Amino acid sequence: MAHAIGIDIGGTKIAGAVVDELGRIVRQERVPTPTDTGALEDAVVAMIGTLRGGEEIAAVGVAAAGFIDAAQSTVYYAPNIDWRNEPFREKLEARTGGTVVVDNDANAAGWAEFRFGAGRLVSDMVMLTVGTGVGGAIVAGDRLFRGGFGAGAELGHLRLVPGGLACGCGQFGCLEQYGSGRALLRMANEIADAGGIGQRLARVRAEQGALDGGLVGDLIQQQDPGAIAALRQLGHWLGEASASLSAVLDPQRFVFGGGVAAAGELLLEPIREAYLEHLPARGYHPEPDFVIAELVNDAGVVGAADLARVWVADHA
Prior knowledge:
Helix content is 40%, strand content 22%. With 316 residues, it is an alpha/beta fold.
């Protein structure tokens, strides 16, 4: 089959790539994300034209944050872009003359890991992307799960703490408020305020003016006790959520991606501990693998391209 194009629309940049059937990137492009929706559409169309370069392309997959309908066509809602019920697929197909498929960015990343990365060789997998927020993807029986309306697998909005911290979704106690990069930063600041093992965090904060994800990440890699304590708190919440997900979905593997996953085994250890602590019927329930994502920054474009290829095959 011909190559496919994957486009990943992020908050600050649009990444695009031509991807072959084995998930390998043939060529790629990156441009800043325009703030105007019309200019954004123009930028995506221009990128598709540049990447195509006269070559036969099977289809184009576009990944974006937000709720996408089950037909992989309309963006119901996008948090970073002023899209509400946006018929993005229809617009792009009219302007490019090719087949276009639109999907959620976490779905695209999860599918890439399932097909070509850390999720290989299993049929059922859950991916949690731990960045500023928490994204999710579910693969069940070798198929990506989207739900009846296409807006499923919003795992960052699992209710983890009833009456807990307010979430941007309008609810309280969501996983995203306890298991995200933003949560890690909050925990690190709380530990810095408490003194003791947080003394170095407090000193770095005073020197730099504020803590950020990069500073906390560096301290984690340096095995700073305060930063490790914050990471273990975050890992506990992710492990507790994973135990609940396991009771419902019974995956063979959990894959963790996003910037926080760069901590590797330092993150996975508390996740496994909390998972076992909260797993129903512990000792009688088969235990899944817990691994770190492999494709990192390329997962969005690779997954979007392959989902477009799958759509073409399913509709042949």
